[in-house]
From TrEMBL:
Record-given protein name: SnoaL-like domain-containing protein
Alphabetized InterPro entries for the sequence: NTF2-like_dom_sf (IPR032710), SnoaL-like (IPR037401)
SUPFAM superfamilies named among the record's database cross-references: NTF2-like
Phylogenetic lineage: Bacteria, Bacillati, Actinomycetota, Actinomycetes, Pseudonocardiales
Superkingdom of this protein's organism: Bacteria
SnoaL-like domain boundaries: 9-119
Any Pfam family matching the protein: SnoaL_2
Organism: Amycolatopsis xylanica
Length: 126
């Protein structure tokens, strides 16, 4: 996955097109490891994303992008707007409607031979 392809992923993510993200950009057996959740396949991740984003609008802002051709390392600012009170806020169960904040994150993507994401590991940065 090159930078142009990654920006297509970011565009799908930022438009909240979770089905496209999970079918076009993730392998079916993708492993996703977030600070708040872990998934071992795209179907479980899709179910969680759809539920979480009933009350959260999330936008990825790319700060830096590095790749060796097999792995992407991306520094992100991730902007969250809480649309309703939610226990699924990255800041914890005290998330309230109207909360608006950014969380710096480091995302490491392992890319499968077909160019899709096979593993995604995200850490919150201080």
């Amino acid at each position: 996955m090159n930078f142009e392809s990654y920006l297509s992923y970011v565009a799908a993510f930022n438009s909240q097109d979770w089905k496209r993200v999970h079918t076009e950009f993730y392998t079916p057996d993708v492993v996703i490891d977030f600070p708040v959740a872990r998934f071992d396949n795209a179907a479980d991740s899709l179910t969680w994303f759809e539920k979480a984003h009933e009350s959260i609008f999330e936008t990825l802002i790319v700060r830096t992008f590095r790749t060796d051709g097999h792995t992407l390392v991306v520094d992100l600012d991730v902007h969250f707007i809480l649309l309703a009170d939610t226990p699924m806020s990255p800041k914890g169960p005290e998330g309230r409607a109207g909360d608006n904040f950014e969380v710096p994150m480091l995302a490491v993507y392992d890319i499968a031979p077909d160019g899709r994401i096979a593993r995604l590991t995200v850490t919150f940065e201080a």
